[in-house]
DNA sequence: ACCTGAACACCGTTCAAGT
DNA sequence: ACCTGAACACCGTTCAAGT
């Protein structure tokens, strides 16, 4: 019984039932073991979840060669998209990455990779650090809201649109007018919209910086 | 025993001990009542938490006159800052706002207010809707990561900096070089940096839109 | 030396019994 | 009609007892 298998199983179960519903008994059963045995490999549920978080970051896997042939704009966008795609594969697990600054081995590797990239494109150390934080926060923050515990499934989107339309137009003229636009934009497009805003803003910040 | 007093007490307890540690027994005790009695006012803990979320949105309170005399850039930034300040007053409660799209009365009022503002400054309905979503997601996403359950208290920032410095510079040249910048920027400044990127990006999006 | 069944002190939720 | 003590089926965690 190695730690890797425990973490893989834990992530699989979280993908199926969510963090709240994941039980140490459930995990122990899936591993044909008992809850007490699990405590021999980590100190409690919180530590287990931190290991799962780094396990997810290890899945991101940015292809290094590809990234280096791109402009900084394209590279930043590609890194953010790749990260976002990984988070979308594990919607129930996203809150784990917001719980703390990831300092596991895979988190370190990803941070090093992106900051190196920014520095190689002429970003100052200060601007690179703030850019990394801003982009990272944006991706995780977006994913947690669009794909977290209260996931807006397609039928909920329709429900929400109908709810907005059912409001009194006299009291809520703007909301009812924008009801379709507020609920019809595909999540990925919404993500890309904000990401492009950030990159466009960075373009200006970079000019001021140098 | 009215619902308002229950919600106020629940929020006060969440501010003190967090969502996870809030117990219905604890809440019942604080109200000199029993857990079973609480169920006469809402159906379970989740519904209680949704009511607390809208209670927080009610606290935001954007002064209408002030906002209307500003440029759209200043108004968007001011609204985001005001929202952010409210979330900072209730760090433990922020995850509640990420759990679902807020459709309580106070959430509706805030959305209506901001979309109206964008429309009055010439934004198209489509751009206004996406801007609202992008800004809202940014503020909540940032707050949840900087002030959520794994709050980076000042001493943790120092610890994190020392940790980055302790890494092997050969393996992590960029991270060790940026260690100070990654950990020394005040949270509010970091928030403002990303917000300004978004607003600068919006400036361009608005030009393309019209 | 390593593992684990069984227990501990909790939790959210329910309902029969009280007023 | 309204309220609630006490119970239910859980949970994360611990440790004495087994192999």
Plain-language structure description:
The structure is a homodimer of 210-residue chains. The first copy, chain A, has 210 residues and is mostly helical. Chain A has two domains: 3-42, Arc Repressor Mutant, subunit A, CATH 1.10.10; 64-209, Orthogonal Bundle (Tetracycline Repressor, domain 2). Chain A is 74% helix and 0% strand. Chain A is built from 13 helices and no strands. Chain A has helices spanning 3-17, 24-30, 35-38, 45-60, 64-68, 72-89, 94-98, 105-120, 125-147, 154-166, 173-177, 179-184, 187-209. In chain A, helix 4 runs parallel beside helix 8, helix 8 crosses helix 9 (125-147) and helix 9 packs antiparallel against helix 13 (187-209). Chain A is flat and about 55 Å long. The N and C termini of chain A lie far apart (54 Å). Chains A and B meet through helix 8, helix 9, helix 11 and helix 13 of A and helix 8, helix 9, helix 11 and helix 13 of B. The structure holds a DNA duplex (19 and 19 nucleotides). Chains A, B: Keywords: DNA-binding, Repressor, Transcription, Transcription regulation. Chains A, B: One of its GO terms (molecular function) is transcription cis-regulatory region binding. Chains A, B: Residues 23-42 bind DNA.
